[in-house]
Write a structure and sequence with these properties.
elongated
Length: about 80
């Protein structure tokens, strides 16, 4: 595991130490890792929402039913066989 040194104002250092003590974290590192993990998840969720919105705005809606999925599977299988 790599390490990073950071500088914090005293008030932030005190806050982080309080969060570690109150949140049941074993160390400041665990607390910061949790914050970073939460931020990564939030950014991924935002990206997924952007993709969903782009999909919704990409054109006319189509009905996706069993027949559509079967055609899609057949098309993709054929594409795979053509690549070989």
């Amino acid at each position: 595991m790599s390490s990073i040194n950071i500088s914090l104002p005293e008030s932030m250092k005190v806050f982080v130490e309080e969060q570690v003590a109150q949140g049941g974290y074993g160390s400041v590192s665990e607390y910061l890792q949790e914050l970073i993990t939460q931020d990564q998840k939030r950014k991924m969720q935002e990206h997924i929402e952007e993709l969903l919105i782009a999909g919704l705005e990409s054109g006319e809606a189509i009905e996706v039913n069993d027949q559509w999925w079967q055609q899609k599977r057949t098309y993709l299988i054929n594409q795979l066989h053509q690549e070989k």
